[in-house]
Structures are given as C-alpha cells and as structure tokens.
Write a structure and sequence with these properties.
The chain has 176 residues and is mostly helical. It has one domain. The longest helix is centred in the middle third of the chain and has 41 residues. One of its GO terms (molecular function) is transmembrane transporter activity.
C-alpha cells in the first residue's frame, strides 16, 4: 500500500510539473518536485527491508548492496533515457514548428535542441545558439516546453498505472 501511495504522490507532482511555464515562480517548481521526492522516498525503507528479508542473515549486507546498486543504476538509466527523449521530442517539435512557420533552421534541429538545456558554463567560447535568429529561439523554447510537458504527462500516467498495479496485487489475509 505504501508503494501505491508513493506512486500516486509522485504522479501528482509530475502532473503539477506539466502546468509549469518559463516565467513561473520557484515555488511553482519546488512543490511538485517535493511531491515527486516524497512519493519516491516513501517506499524506500520498505524496499530495503524486503531486499534483505528474503536472504539468510549472513548475506543481508550483500543483498542490500546489490539492491542499492541496482536502484542507483536504474535511476541513472532512467535519467539518461528521459534526457534523450526530451532532446528527441524537442527536435521533432522544432522541425515541425519551423516547417509550419516556413523558417529555415541555421543548424539541425537536434543540435539546437541539445543546446537548449546546456548551461552557459558548459558552452564553448563561441556559442552557436547566440547567432540564431530570435524567431528560431522562440520556436525552440516552445518546442522544449511542449516536450517537457509531454514527458511529464507520460510519467504521471505511468506512475498512476504502477500505483494501481501495486494496490491491486496486495496480498490478501490468510483467510481469503
């Protein structure tokens, strides 16, 4: 039940992130992120306990280490996949918007999409995005926002579905 509730809280946070705009306040982002963190953190103790409860006591440390390693590896893979999907969706949205607006992109849509999330500290000394026309930058920002909202919509739906699976598969008492 705790896992299901955690997934529902995370889904609420992801759903709230879909409504963010670029000019929103810090609290508009902090509250959904806090909900996602709480939702993800709720079942951690339960999962840790389950990972060591199914092995002999002398192997509990090994089980906890393997479980933690797999959780962190899974999180790293998920972050990489979501980042790649974000760039891909942004590029696709940008290509479609440029075509609709009859604008020619100065470089590939994927290159522009990749540069959107890069901070100024990590950019090269000659920043190619600074030479891009303002209309293309505006399209790129809208393309990114649309991709961002789409990803969080999918994550919210997946979180709700996972919560439903968790709740529906709860073990019933021994008399049932």
């Amino acid at each position: 039940m705790l896992s299901g509730i955690g997934f529902l809280i995370s889904a609420l946070g992801a759903w709230l992130l879909m409504g963010l705009s670029a000019d929103g306040s810090l609290w508009a982002m902090a509250i959904p992120m806090l909900l996602i963190g709480i939702g993800n953190g709720l079942p951690w103790g339960l999962m840790d306990a389950l990972s060591v409860s199914v092995v002999p006591k002398e192997r509990a440390g090994m089980a906890a280490g393997i479980f933690t390693t797999m959780r962190v590896a899974g999180e790293a893979i998920a972050i990489a996949v979501i980042g790649a999907v974000l760039v891909g969706l942004t590029a696709a949205n940008l290509r479609a918007a440029a075509k609709t607006a009859s604008l020619s992109l100065p470089q590939s849509a994927t290159a522009i999409a990749s540069q959107i999330g890069a901070s100024a500290e990590h950019s090269s000394s000659v920043d190619p995005i600074s030479t891009i026309d303002g209309a293309v930058i505006e399209l790129a920002h809208h393309a990114y926002t649309s991709a961002f909202h789409g990803i969080f919509a999918v994550l919210a739906v997946l979180s709700v579905l996972t919560a439903v699976v968790c709740i529906l598969t709860l073990r019933r008492s021994a008399d049932q």
